[in-house]
Specification:
Largest sheet: 5 strands, mixed
Number of strands: 29
Low-confidence stretches: 1-66
Helix content: under 10%
Strand order of the largest sheet: 12-13-14-15-19
Structural class: mainly beta
Distance between the termini: 17 Å
Strand content: 35-45%
Bound molecules: calcium ion
Mean pLDDT: 87
Number of helices: 3
């Protein structure tokens, strides 16, 4: 099966050559956003965006006799490749999420609104939630940065946001849905954390619930010159793990690594510079952390959720290399499973392990990008090692702010220039 879609990928590349833009040509951190045409002209004609499962769910025929049940599953038509279908045009999407099983896609827009996109790509006229009077989005790493729905959102209507406020500080807050499920209750603001940020850089911003029901929050070192990285007793340079179902405003779970000492009780892992995007693969219990580098190296770390307390190395190390300290060699740190130098990009944008149903051929594959170069790469994590490393040269989304998944595990990509792309299969006629 694998060789099948590799060949298919080549076919797609061939179809697109000529208008393909070399990813490595663009490495400027302050480069202006690419125009929409970069993505649209380099792609095969976008398919019509279908509801999450219509093109892909294997058809199942069940035959029942008096003594046995026989199930015949028909495989989907041959996969020729994957492509990006334009799902919606939304200015500066920074977070893409949905409650589990919900057919709507929720897109957090940098200036502070959360837009609802229906499964046929229609954008709800009024935003689900408008936080623009609370959100400050001046610096390039500021704005409405994170969005997560409570695992029991269908029952309790609780959602969480992470944003920059008018003082250049960041806040983690909760809202609840209103009586109309199309809108959150704007008055329901409940603050969980306020970070007095030292600078407007490295403010993290990713939110995701783990299979343990706890909320994980990436914070970043605050751009303080790296001094916070190795401090497990500050919330900067960390990923937090908190219980939003207990305490006021939250609890540190009793099995957090530093509850008994050695660090702040909320901290799950530290030694991070700017973990702008991380994701949790619920099927394996692994967290994939893409940590943005300073000078030369971008990195992705993969760690089991039950391996709390890990030191990811910053600022002793940048990627796997010693960076700033003679103590580097003596300090035990988690090393990245994938890293790349700044000749190939400038700022890693972490994605997700694909667990949707439309493209079972790529199940278990982790996709990621780089904000400057705009390529899409992938690997599979196999017992401590990244294997099957790929660059999907036919996929040219533009400048990737974020990845996201919908309520059924399908994968989306949000770009600085305002596209929300959906990863879709290209299949032979059945
Ligand atoms: Ca590191």
């Amino acid at each position: 099966m694998r060789s099948l879609w590799l060949v298919a990928g080549v076919l797609l590349v061939a179809a697109c050559s000529g208008s393909d833009t070399s990813a490595s040509e663009t490495t400027n951190t302050t480069s202006s956003p690419p125009t929409t045409s970069v993505a649209t002209t380099t792609l095969p004609a976008a398919t019509t965006t279908a509801p999450p499962t219509t093109t892909s769910t294997p058809t199942t025929t069940t035959t029942t006799t008096t003594t046995t049940t026989t199930t015949t599953t028909q495989p989907p038509p041959e996969l020729l490749g994957v492509e990006l279908a334009l799902h919606a045009a939304i200015d500066r999407p920074l977070a893409i999420a949905a409650p589990r099983g919900d057919t709507r896609l929720f897109v957090a827009q940098r200036e502070g609104t959360i837009e609802i996109v229906t499964d046929d790509g229609e954008i709800q006229e009024e935003p689900f939630l408008d936080l623009s009077d609370r959100v400050w989005a001046n610096g390039i790493e500021q704005g409405l940065l994170g969005l997560a729905f409570h695992p029991e959102y269908a029952e309790n209507g609780r959602l969480f946001v992470y944003f920059t406020d008018e003082n250049n500080d960041t806040r983690l807050a909760e809202y609840t849905v209103g009586t109309d499920p199309a809108f959150a209750d704007a008055e329901s603001y409940r603050e969980l954390l306020l970070f007095d940020q030292p600078t407007e850089r490295h403010n993290g911003g990713m939110l995701e619930f783990g299979p343990d029901g706890f909320l994980y929050v990436s914070v970043g070192d605050g751009g303080d010159g790296g001094h916070n990285g190795q401090k497990s007793d500050t919330l900067f340079g960390t990923i937090l793990r908190i219980d939003v179902d207990g305490g006021e405003p939250y609890l540190a779970p009793p099995d957090n690594p530093f509850v008994a000492g050695g660090g702040a009780p909320e901290v799950w892992g530290y030694g991070l510079r700017n973990p702008w995007r991380f994701s949790i693969d619920h099927e394996t219990g692994l967290m994939y952390i893409a940590d943005v580098g300073q000078q030369d190296w971008e990195e992705i770390n993969v760690v089991a959720l039950d391996a709390g307390g890990a030191n990811f190395g910053w600022a002793y190390r940048e990627g796997s290399r010693c960076f700033s300290s003679p103590e580097c060699e003596e300090t035990e740190t988690v090393l990245p499973v994938v890293e790349y130098g700044h000749q190939e990009g400038c700022s890693v944008t972490g994605g997700y392990v694909y667990r949707g149903s439309a493209i079972p051929e790529v199940a278990g594959t982790y996709f990621y990008s780089d904000w400057c170069s705009g390529w899409i790469r992938s690997f599979r994590y196999d017992n401590g090692t990244a294997v099957d490393l790929e660059e999907w040269t036919a996929l040219q989304p533009g400048q990737v702010n974020t990845f996201g998944v919908d309520g059924f595990g399908e994968l989306y990509i949000g770009t600085w220039s305002g596209e929300v792309w959906k990863l879709v299969p290209v299949r032979a006629e059945s």
